[in-house]
Amino acid sequence: MESSTTSDFNTDAFANLTKAQLCTYCGTTLWMSINISTASATVLGNSLTVSAILFSKKLSTVIANYFVFSLAVSDLLVGLSIPYHMCFYIMTDFGNSEPNCLFRFVLTAFACASSIFNLFFIATDRYIAIVHPFHYKRCITKRTALALITIGWITSFSLAVVPVVWNDWREGVKCEVINVLPNNYLKFIISPLFVLIWMMMFILYSRICKEASGHARRIRGSNSIQNILALKDTKSFQVMLLILGCFTICWLPYFVLTLYARTTRYKSATLYEVFFNLAVANSSMNPVIYAWKNKTFRNSFVYLVKCHKPYGVSSTNFVTNHIPSKKNSVNGICNNVSKPGNILSSEITCQIGPPHIQCISINENSNNNYSDIRR
């Protein structure tokens, strides 16, 4: 009788254990499948973006695309880091090593910080281009763009490696954010920086939105040069605003949950996985946004998928030292330089007004090129 009871108890225990293991296996398989899909889409999409800018003259000559290129690289880094996170699912003892555990958070912090800095630089670039268009070429030069990008990456790396020397890792503790990253690191370093940059971007985009609304009203009733340029910059602003919105929706829940969990010791493995996968999925969205809203990126992606080099037409600066004696001669100059043999895929428009005559070359996805003819 006792033997029968013991046998029944062991059978029930085995059944319960099997169900628990099966549930864990199914959950792990689900998250791994999602991670593999996200990593594949992220690496493929951002590789196309990086390649499009590198091999397309039309894209690579635009200074604003330097920031887009940097953002694509940071997103690519996110995609490449996902397989490392999967190691913690596959090998349960992988997080028992301090270097393995700390490197997990260094990768996440580095990719996230670099994305935020790149988005801030993009917001600044669009702010100057739309609100102060005539100061753009003076303020945003190739050297300035490269300097900002370098500062952003160095700062991101400096913030990311802090947990290497300042952490709460202990042997036998599970490798999770709330167990490893110090509370003060999140509260007094990451949080203030995140909020500060986000507020600055919000202010910049609010100002841009106000200016873009004014552009839209003027465009409906006029075909002047400034309004044609404003239309192109407004479209560019829409793309960047969409990128910022997706980044906010994807990363903000993960950031809030991490900070809340670290402060209150709240644990929810399922909620953490959902928000983490939502956050890393953001890195696969930007190439889709480019292809959807930007014709040149879309065409370059098609060329790359077909294994063709996306030869684009580079932007051309129209510069002349000809000083016209009459106002009417300006139109002749512009008509001459706008012939297909002189400037390709461009639209040359001239505006006469004191103290000079201004000719503008409008290229798809390129900075507006100005040429002043002093009177």
UniProtKB/TrEMBL annotation:
Any Pfam family hit: 7tm_1
Compartment(s) where it occurs, according to its Swiss-Prot or TrEMBL record: Cell membrane
Membrane topology type: Multi-pass membrane protein
One cellular component (GO) term of this entry: plasma membrane
Record key words, sorted: Cell membrane, G-protein coupled receptor, Membrane, Receptor, Transducer, Transmembrane, Transmembrane helix
Transmembrane segments: 34-55, 62-82, 102-124, 145-166, 186-208, 239-262, 274-292
Keyword ATP-binding: no
The protein's name: G-protein coupled receptors family 1 profile domain-containing protein
Naturally occurring in which organism (per UniProt): Exocentrus adspersus
